[in-house]
Amino acid sequence: MKTETRSDRENGEVQIIKNKEKGMQVELKRVDDAFHFEATGLSGVSVHIDGAADIGGHNAGARPMELLLMGLGGCTAIDVILILKKQRQRVDDLQISVSGERVKIEDTQMTPFRKINVHFKFKGNITEAKAEKAIELSMEKYCSATAQLTPSAEITHTYEVDFAE
């Protein structure tokens, strides 16, 4: 299977995906006559997607742009937990809040994210320095969702640590 991206074509490069580990695929199946879809990935887990009620949706699933933020939050959460475990930090709880500012592109209906903030709330026996380092490693080295969104959105992070022995 051959996959090209605009930036690859502009650089004269074409990426060839040779196995499923480097590629990804999801399937969407329409659930009703409105905008409700059930999406399933290679993991076999289903996610429901729907449009807002004001356009005829039934609020039966997440909005597509919410899923982008959820994906970013989930990607960095997994990285951060793995890194902190390797640093022998005890994470009792981690809550992440991801917020995004959208800007309308002139002469279109598109309103992509231009600014995204990921806020981490840690609870456990974690030093602030280790929390900060884990977040930085995730955002700068490991999280593919961050890499995907960074060219079009400024991604920042904030955090707080509720230290518990």
UniProtKB/TrEMBL annotation:
UniProt xrefs under PANTHER family: PROTEIN YHFA
Superkingdom of origin: Bacteria
Gene3D superfamilies: 3.30.300.20
Name under which the protein is recorded: Putative redox protein
InterPro entries linked to this entry: KH_dom-like_a/b (IPR015946), OsmC/Ohr_fam (IPR003718), OsmC/Ohrsf (IPR036102)
Phylogenetic placement of the source organism: Bacteria, Pseudomonadati, Bacteroidota, Cytophagia, Cytophagales
Pfam family of the protein (one): OsmC
Listed SUPFAM superfamilies: OsmC-like (SSF82784)
